[in-house]
Amino acid sequence: MVSGEHTIKQYDQELESLRGRILQMGGLVESQLRMAIDCFEHADLRKADQVVEADERVDEEEIELARVILNLIVRRQPAANDLRLIMGVSRAVTDLERIGDEATKIARAARWVHNKGVVVRMPRIRDISVSAEAALSMLRGALDAFARLDAVAAAEIIREDEGVDEQFRLILRQLLTFMMEDPRTITGSLDTVWVAKAIERIGDHSKNIAGDVIFIVQGEDVRHATPEQLARAVSQPS
Amino acid sequence: MTSVSLDQPTAQVADPLALKAEVRDLSFYYGTFQGLKSLSLPVYQNRVTALIGPSGCGKSTLLRCFNRIHDLYPGNRYDGSITLHPDRIDILDRNIDPMDVRMRIGMVFQKPSPFPTTVFENVAYGLRLRGVRAKAVLAEKVEYALRSAALWDEAKDRLHHDASNLSGGQQQRLCIARALATDPELLLFDEPTSALDPIATASIEELVDELKARVSILMVTHNMQQAARCSDFTAFMYLGELVEFGPTEQIFFKPSKKQTEDYITGRFG
């Protein structure tokens, strides 16, 4: 999609650096999420601190990218594909930062759950893992589609979100059954619900990022699109 | 049962697009050099259409076809037609008097070009040419044109002063008033603000926006932001051909041709 070079070379470098930075931020958030999941799955509580630390860097990166974007708009008056790229990056930054926040929530919840020692009473860890890996894979796929500006791959990621949502509903139903059977599991179950919800939200944010890729490549806003509209949006020549 | 009152509009009807002029298969030759290559383009009524493209792409050539300025030089040749609506006359028809065309289609040039006379006479020029003699009518029409060009307040006490004493922006608005005096249906602007400072530019752009309620406007501009700000439709030309025409938002958000995208994003050449 991105065609030849601008007459003003500096502009090319600025756009290239913008693309590099958003992917770098994506990598940071991805590893943050990986740590948060490990933290919850394996009660590796040292990692909880690392997740929180990483979140500070993610927040700083969000602010810095906002500044870079503002500068590009002020100085270059971007149009067409440049405009769409800048708008798309701007939105993706917000979603990445939110994913960072959700990862931090997971790490904090892991700390409570494992410190309380309720984890032995929590047989649903495995289901959470499956759901977490699915969300992580969505994020990875969305970033990959972003790096390659691949609208078709992005549409595939958007379709995956339904699976993550469905897993959340399943976990919720199972936890409800546990809570009804044995009220002693209520505290642990509720903590687990927060984690499951955070994972489900990460799926949504990853889906949004995939939508940004389609916006950049095709100029179509697919945020509330039906499956048919989504298919149409990516089938047009870009 | 609820009933709908018939004398109340139930829905906002969008202003429908009507054609003001229609360029069809237009080619233009400067002697043996072909400046325009069989291009077709609609010009919509009460809309601003911007012509953009790199230098030498033919946008000014196209603009000048509309009031037959090319007739002034020997060896120039038109092919194709420009139909002026609603009466559907072909502007390029040999039997049509260019003077009649110029009464209906006004032109404003890149550099302010007031005639070496008073402010009043500049605006009255076209009217006198048309045979208007009555002083009261002239005064009324001149005032109306100056008001329309947002120049009245600044010029009303200097009507009989030399027009060259006005500032650049005022001179350009005077030229617009001169073009408006004969009640044209279509106004041609050839880079109307390229010789003006940002404030004067803004006032001309605002004026363009007001004028489109009365006339249709075709504007050549080198300033992409100006096209994005002022126009409803944008046509991108390259090497004498029309590459792409569409609503301005579309051209600047997602043009369908790569050449257009390369040009408006500054990747040309």
Structural class of chain B: alpha/beta
- Report the CATH C-level class of the domain at 19-113 and 186-264 in chain B: Alpha Beta
The largest pleated sheet of chain A is described as: none
> What is the residue-mean pLDDT of chain A, rounded to a whole number?
92
Series of H and E elements of chain A: HHHHHHH
CATH topology of chain A: Methane Monooxygenase Hydroxylase, Chain G, domain 1
**Biggest interface: chains and residue counts?**
A-B, 17 and 17 residues
Helix-and-strand structural type of chain A: mainly alpha
Global geometry of chain B: globular
Quick synopsis:
The complex is a heterodimer of chains A (238) and B (269). With 238 residues, chain A is mainly α.
How would you describe this protein?
- The complex is a heterodimer of chains A (238) and B (269).
- Chain A is an all-alpha fold and 238 residues long.
- Chain A has one domain: Methane Monooxygenase Hydroxylase, Chain G, domain 1.
- Helix content of chain A is 84%, strand content 0%.
- Chain A has helices at residues 9-42, 46-76, 80-116, 125-148, 151-181, 186-218, 227-235.
- Chain A is globular.
- Chain A starts with 8 loop residues before the first helix and ends with a helix.
- The mean pLDDT of chain A is 92.
- With 269 residues, chain B is an alpha/beta fold.
- Chain B has a domain at 19-113 and 186-264: 3-Layer(aba) Sandwich (Rossmann fold), CATH 3.40.50.300.
- Chain B has 10 helices and 10 strands.
- In chain B, the strands form 2 sheets. Chain B has a 6-stranded mixed beta sheet, sandwiched between helices. A 4-stranded antiparallel beta sheet of chain B has the order 2-1-4-5, covered by helices on one side.
- In chain B, helix 3 crosses helix 4 (135-148), helix 3 (119-129) packs parallel to helix 6 (168-180) and helix 6 packs parallel to helix 7.
- The longest helix of chain B has 14 residues, at 135-148.
- Chain B is globular and about 55 Å long.
- At the A-B interface, helix 3 of A face helix 8 and helix 10 of B.
